[in-house]
Amino acid sequence: MSRFFRSGESSSEDSSSEEEELYSEEEKDEEQQEDSDEDQSEEDDEEEEDAESSEEEKRGASKFLKDVDSSDSEDSDEEERGQVKSAKDKRYGELSQTIKAIENGSKIGDWNTVATEFDKLNRQVSKIKDSGSTPKIYIECISDLEAKVLEASEKQKVTPKKMNAQAARGFNTLKQRLKKNNKDYQDLITSYREDKLGFMESDEEEEPLPVKPRKIRFDTFEPAQPAADDDEGFETVDGKGRVVQFTPESIFKHLRAIMESRGKKNTDPFGQIKVMEKLNSVAVTPYQRIRVILTMVSARFDLSAGVSSAMPLEHWKAAEQELSTLLTVLEESKEYIVIENAEDWEDDDKPPTLGPNDKYIKIPGSIVSYVERLDDELTRSLQHIDPHTSEYIDRLQDEGSLYNIVFRGLLYYETLRKETSLEIPQDSLNRIVMRRLEHVYFKPAQVVNILEGNCWKRVPDSVDSLITPRESITEASDLISTLCNYLFNNSEGIIKARAMLCRNYFLALHDEYYLARDMMLMSHLQEQIAQFDVATQILYNRTLVQVGLCAFRKGLVYEAQNTLQEICGSGRQKELLAQGVQIQRYNQVTPEQERLERQRQLPFHMHINLELLECVYLTCSMLLEIPLLAQTGSSPDIKKRVISKTYRRMLEYHERQIFTGPPENTRDHVMQASKALAAGEWKKAIQFIHAIKIWDLMPQTDDIKAMLSKQIQEEGLRTYLFTYAPFYDTLAVETLGAMFELEPRKVSAVISKMISHEELAAALDQVTSTVIFRKGVELSRLQGLSLTLADKASSLIETNERTLEQRTQGSSNAFERQGGRGRGGGQRGGQRGGRGGARTGQRQAGGTTFTGGALGNAVRG
């Protein structure tokens, strides 16, 4: 019997649970559907059907067991089920509970809870507003809450007792959010405060606004450029399935939503860019276009947030076009100004307007930052493209349009400073002038003139520049000088140093050696360059190399070799000039350092030819080292002086080769020429040097080869005199001139210079035009070798004594041994000093004996 009753109870419980699930599903559907009235009517029909089905389920065996109590309980259950609330009533109930929680929290000062409930209240109101108007109890709540917050704020100023940290944070958060939220309901709040009772009387009779029929519009916007639209026939919808319409009135709300979602996860940047392109097409006022373009360019730059990836080409070109459009709009609408220190306009419903005392509307933004980022993205793109392909050439053509953007950006800042009374940051002007300078300092003058001419053609004749006037800047040298002088006077630190280096580079590139050298020395950058950043150090190295190449083109061999020694002598030309990563044999560089090294690499069109650089350096070293080797020889009494260790190592390696074939590369040509020059075959040396094909890359190749021939003739004469002076008593100047095909005056000048520098022990008889050599006390070969052996033995003893002192340091008798060694070392040192002095008195400097050296075999052969 009990089992029979239990079945009836379970069936009623099941039916009631089904109804509860049905109601919960109805609520979820209510929240997701926009047309609340239609959905509610359908749900009511379903409720009636479910109620009938539940009653039929209860009919059965259980209805024959009804008594009075059961009938009464059934009637009460039916009454409760008849009082089911709709989704709207339920939402209003939740809204009332939240408002009550806010009132309670404000009474006890629990501002943290009030702030949490306030956010919850706004979310509930947004759902109610989707299907009707704003509830008046909500207006009452936020109006009273604003008064309570104001009262608590005033009370806090008077009362010394402070809130705790948690309550203070909640109070400040609530105060800010309430102030921003109440702006949207200011009219309703004012109406409520004027007549509270009249405002709230119609609250219960309030009916939702009628739902407007949905209109589908396909002509909401028109693309800026006529193109085939792949989205034809489709609409943009939001997360709730509603059609998004782009109108001029909704531009700022869309921009605000995009800015708030910028950088967050699960955000589609490409979709945001498409939305902003549509907003740009429907913008009608200059302010709307400026705001949309600023946001859109920033979003495009976000596509290449990683340092290892370059910005997509189509987006780079789009950003360049948008920046050009932005500058055009700013030039036409001069009442709008884009400046860094402007305040953001937070009202999305209406644009800012000019006040009675206002002349300009400031819009926050930075033109120079966009220009710098666009320039950096082009450089990064060129770094990732193979320079030996046509794609690199096509990409390089975009530099002209980028330079035009830089030029127009500088004109915009100059116009702001000239026509407005606003304070324009000097740093912004310096940065954009520096960018303009960095685009022209390494280019030939002809290319710079073309770039400048194209920029001025796009500017109206009425517009002129204050820094670089149109009429006074006629040559590339004038432009470089003007830009550098401006930075010298208005900047400090790195920008000033980079301007100096750029000017010196341009001067050296155009064969102004002495001016570039003097400016480099006067700037004292060689003493401070280690304190600057890596990019400035790279620019310093490039300038130093260019000055050295300029000295070589001028025929100043010693100056060129001395300038290039620091870069080329290190063997790290690629790394120092940022033209490649040096291959490390034992992984001495971490992956992070290697990544940074690759990021600072220069694009290929800015490279200095490393093969040409090495050829110039080795040729200059040959012209200096071969006479020096002939002068010193293997004489132990003359101090060995090395000009270029790199060249010496190559020369010794070449001497050790058993068989040397015809020269194949630049180094082989220079080594073969060195061997021929040391043997006195200067014509053969000229042939080897002229056979190097890399000279064709230098301007005025014929003049370079003629200069090299002249230098080889003179150094061949010096080498001959150093080598064969001991075998002559007198030698006619005409004979030397005929041997080396030099004029007698030139031969006399070379010999006089050697005698004045005490390089040659001789005298020049101008009457007979002969060279008279002086003979000194000569040492035999055996004596010379003996002295060499004695010097090497003494140096070996000193080395052994230092090693022993280090090992025995700290022992009990170390002081005695040290004193004994000191006395013995002093005696030996005195003996060696005396022997050296005697030998110096017997021999004369000047290399009167050539007995060996790196090229001894070649000379004797």
UniProtKB/TrEMBL annotation:
- Bias (Polar residues) occurs at 806-815
Among Pfam families, the record links this protein to: eIF-3c_N, EIF3CL_C, PCI
- Alphabetical keyword list: Cytoplasm, Initiation factor, Protein biosynthesis
Q: Where is the composition biased (Basic and acidic residues)?
A: 56-69, 81-93
Q: Report biased composition (Gly residues) as residue ranges.
A: 821-839
Q: Where is the composition biased (Acidic residues)?
A: 11-55, 70-80
Tagged with keyword Cytoplasm = yes
Q: Where is this region: Disordered?
A: 1-95, 802-861
Gene Ontology cellular component annotations, sorted alphabetically: eukaryotic 43S preinitiation complex; eukaryotic 48S preinitiation complex; eukaryotic translation initiation factor 3 complex
For the PCI domain, which residue ranges apply? 604-778
Classification via InterPro entries = EIF3C, EIF3C_N_dom, EIF3CL_C, PCI_dom, WH-like_DNA-bd_sf, WH_DNA-bd_sf
Q: Does the keyword Glycosyltransferase apply?
A: no
Q: Where in the cell is it found?
A: Cytoplasm
Q: Which SMART domains does the UniProt record give?
A: PINT (SM00088)
Q: Which GO terms describe its biological process?
A: formation of cytoplasmic translation initiation complex
**Mainly resides where?**
cytoplasm
- Where in this chain does the entry annotate a coiled-coil region? none
Question: Which terms does the record give in the GO molecular function aspect?
Answer: RNA binding; translation initiation factor activity; translation initiation factor binding
- Family, similarity comment: Belongs to the eIF-3 subunit C family.
Question: Which HAMAP family does UniProt cross-reference here?
Answer: eIF3c
Instruction: Provide the function of this protein.
Output: Component of the eukaryotic translation initiation factor 3 (eIF-3) complex, which is involved in protein synthesis of a specialized repertoire of mRNAs and, together with other initiation factors, stimulates binding of mRNA and methionyl-tRNAi to the 40S ribosome. The eIF-3 complex specifically targets and initiates translation of a subset of mRNAs involved in cell proliferation.
Describe its partners and assembly state.
Component of the eukaryotic translation initiation factor 3 (eIF-3) complex.
Q: Which PANTHER family match?
A: EUKARYOTIC TRANSLATION INITATION FACTOR 3, SUBUNIT 8 EIF3S8 -RELATED (PTHR13937), EUKARYOTIC TRANSLATION INITIATION FACTOR 3 SUBUNIT C-RELATED (PTHR13937:SF0)
Q: What's the protein here called? A: Eukaryotic translation initiation factor 3 subunit C
At the highest ranks, the source species' classification is: Eukaryota, Fungi, Dikarya, Ascomycota, Pezizomycotina
